[in-house]
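Re: the 473-residue chain
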Amino acid sequence: MNTKTEIVNWLNRNQSNFTAMADEIWANPEIRFEEFKASKLQADFLEEVGFAITWDVGGISTAFMAEWGSGGPIIGFAGEYDALPGLSQKLQSDPDPVEAGGHGHGCGHNLLGTGCLAATVAVKQWLQETGTPGTVRYYGCPAEEGGGGKIYMGRDGAFDDLDAAFNFHPGYTNYASKGSMLGVQSMRFRFHGRTAHAAAMPEMGRSALDAVELMNVGVNYMREHVADNVRIHYIITDGGLAANIVPDRAEVHYVMRAHLPHQVQAVVDRVRKVAQGAALMTETEVEEIFVSGTTCVLNNHALADLQYEVMQSLGPIQFTAEEMAYAAEINANNPPGNSQMIAQYMGLSPAQANQPLVGDVFPSVDIGRIFPASSDVGDMSWRVPLSMLNTTCWPTNVPAHSWGIVASGGMSIGHKGMMYAAQVMSQAAIALFVDPARLAAVRAEFEASLAATPYFSPVPADVQPPKLKHLYR
């Protein structure tokens, strides 16, 4: 397996193993920190083909590392497999859950993890057949959706000796990102007051719910006075037990986003002051509970250029007429507007944006742009040079985290994008094994970026991931 064509052919011959794995994970969606079936499925497969498995990375029972080879360079692939709550969906072009209120792969992580795994195994085959020195690793990363699994894994030193790493995300188009994403901190603000009969003795009570509502009002007024890329969202998670009791406890969950770490912290500090003010106004006490946090993505441009070269050599993804028709039906069953947003971000022409699926290859047009979402891939990218690849796995007019993504991720549309990503990432990784100068350029860019903006973890040192027993090992 000495040529790029042979790598593609190997992946094509073994495609059924990987699509079956992706579909198994799709059919058994598990949310953050509970990916028991998915992690065991992937680890067992990798162990069977010769990888050494290390479990409990970062103190998380569903996190593992698979390694093959010896010596350097050491190239890693970061996979994910967590689903989202409430996004259960059948494989059909209109919204219809498999289970009402059930989980679903509304961000395509069944494809993400399996695509990275497929690339890892392809690189292992190449190293083995060519006798090239080096090590390849796959990281089974849990809880990307709001749990920050990679932060705990990185804090545990799991990425420290990597020379470079690859990650891909299912998406609308094929490109290797040079842009960034938002950093985030997630916190719960729990207010403590005093109960009383709401009608007979209201003056004796101190309403924790009033404090929550006043906090929300204050933050909503604050929105006028923050930077354009700041995002603040909240839900009330506890509003009391009965309307005729002044609630002595109420809680609101806030998610606060901005770009660079110091910008995120500035927003968090202001929201904290609003919470303290709400407590002062209502004569209650406020308790802060840290939930999670991630850092903005530091995409390595040299790695992105390498992946773009590979995509140019491979050409576009070819979708069938049946796949186009299915995607068009999904698009029609969603409100209009998402395709225009993608067109604006990616620089697509109106004709391209109006296609049900876009299989073309695009250069990295997102330099300097900040995509308004967050990922713990960001924290990994500050520990090791990393490139986030995007490939077409769902239709153009489908909002992220929605039923249409689930409906695309368990069938051939998602499979094609996943296997295309595996081809791109594996070939790019092999280029680093055979070209030390290219790897050195990747490392030099990374070191320069860190010198300009040092990394610090958004998660306090005393915060630990949930200690859940793995159900299948």
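The first strand starts at residue 52 and ends at 55.
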